[in-house]
Write a structure and sequence with these properties.
44% of the residues lie in helices and 12% in strands. By secondary structure, the protein is of the alpha/beta class.
């Protein structure tokens, strides 16, 4: 499907650029953008918000260039949804700089009437980040949530794969053209997503990526989402830009509790600042939305199979399978010796930790929770019940303990001494 006025909107983006707030202003003034094109320079000046440089570019840009892009989309089987089309998402139109057109491979879901969560994070994800990205997306998709992400390596790719594994709907927002071969490692999911969802972009099909396209792309991810989940984000990660857009757009921001490694510095800081809701499993997200899920379906978060992500591509990591190490008779005893030494070191570390439990600078609640936790995993609800402390206060305490590197969060909202 190609929207009726698509060629005019494409022509405008070719002239004044993408991510331009003037595009929305044009749509507010003209019910038929064709009149804007036909009005010429006099009409453009009458609008009152175009610079001389803008008018020069509008004058020099050929409508035939836009028609060529539409021909290319027809050749490749892509749809083009323009900003004045009834099928254009209202949630996207409501932001300051909505795209003039969306190029679509597949079928864009009715995002205005379906619950959706954006999942974002580092391209250099750890196994912890990869597994949680996949499992959150899988579980949310099973509950009918549309999973939105950016198609990048690491967290993005794992999220799309998790949603697909659950036979759910996912939307991939690219920072380049749909036909661009950028990130060939994820080409398989870009081919699969259109069967259940859509790969979309505001850029023409063959547009190559540019550095500033990706921050701009993030505003679309957050706009299409009811909430945004951050999984493993460094202090300067691009995923924090998505979170900032989400806050500006009035969306919820969630962050997976992580340890104090650099991969979690950004997301942990958002939790600490109070700008992100800490989560440990997918129900923490769903519980924020009253009466959204009236269902008897139960998903065991810990039992979700991870076979599909054994060799998932991550930036900066060799994507080949790790070589297996086979022990022969000569090195079995050496391996056992190393294991025994590790156990002794861990026991000694834990003994030292116990001696200093009461000397930490913790709040009274955090100290009480820390004293309660042991080397056996314990569920947050049990901590709350046994200590007679409200769950939200326990979660706040656990967040602080996690940031100090004193406890570790496990799947299923369980915790253990670190």
């Amino acid at each position: 499907m190609i929207s009726f006025n698509a060629e005019y909107w494409i022509w405008i983006t070719l002239a004044v650029g993408y991510n331009n707030p003037k595009i929305k202003r044009i749509s507010e003034i003209y019910t038929d953008v064709g009149k804007f094109y036909c009005g010429g320079e006099k009409e453009w000046r009458f609008c009152g918000f175009f610079t001389s440089r803008d008018i020069e570019r509008l004058s020099c840009t050929k409508l035939s260039d836009a028609k060529n892009i539409i021909d290319r989309c027809n050749q490749l089987g892509y749809s083009v949804i323009s900003i004045d089309d009834d099928s254009y998402p209202k949630c996207l139109y409501n932001i300051d700089s909505p795209p003039a057109v969306l190029y679509v491979s597949g079928k864009l879901p009715d995002i205005d009437n379906q619950f959706s969560i954006g999942i974002v994070g580092t391209r250099r994800a750890t196994q912890y980040g990869i597994k949680n990205s996949y499992k959150f997306a899988y579980a949310l998709a099973k509950y009918g949530t549309v999973v939105v992400s950016g198609g990048a390596l690491g967290v993005d790719g794992a999220s799309h794969r998790g949603a697909l594994a659950a036979d759910g709907i996912t939307v991939c927002v690219r920072g380049c053209g749909l036909n661009c071969r950028y990130l060939s490692e994820n080409a398989d999911i870009r081919r699969t997503i259109p069967q259940k969802g859509a790969v979309i972009s505001e850029y023409p099909p063959d547009e190559t990526p540019r550095r500033y396209y990706f921050p701009a792309r993030n505003r679309i991810i957050s706009a299409l989402s009811d909430g945004v989940l951050i999984i493993e984000s460094g202090a300067k990660s691009g995923s924090l830009i998505t979170a900032d857009f989400a806050v500006e757009q009035g969306k919820d921001v969630f962050a997976l509790l992580g340890n104090n490694s650099p991969q979690n510095e950004g997301s942990n800081n958002r939790i600490k600042e109070g700008s992100a809701i800490p989560v440990t499993d997918f129900m923490d997200i769903l519980n924020e939305y009253d009466n959204l899920y009236a269902t008897d379906r139960e998903i065991d978060f810990d039992s979700i199979s991870l076979e599909d992500i054994e060799n998932l591509p991550v930036k900066g990591r060799n994507n080949l399978k790790e070589k297996r190490v086979y022990l022969n008779n000569n090195n079995v005893s050496e391996a056992h010796s190393k294991d025994n030494n590790a156990i002794l070191v861990n026991d000694k570390k834990h003994e030292t930790q116990l001696k200093h439990k009461s000397n930490l600078e913790l709040s009274r609640t955090a100290q009480t929770v820390y004293d309660y936790i042991s080397n056996e995993p314990v569920h947050i609800d049990k901590i709350s019940n046994d200590l007679n402390i409200p769950v939200f206060k326990v979660l706040t305490a656990l967040t602080m303990l996690e940031m100090k590197g004193l406890v570790s969060a496990l799947q299923g909202r369980k915790y253990i001494l670190k």
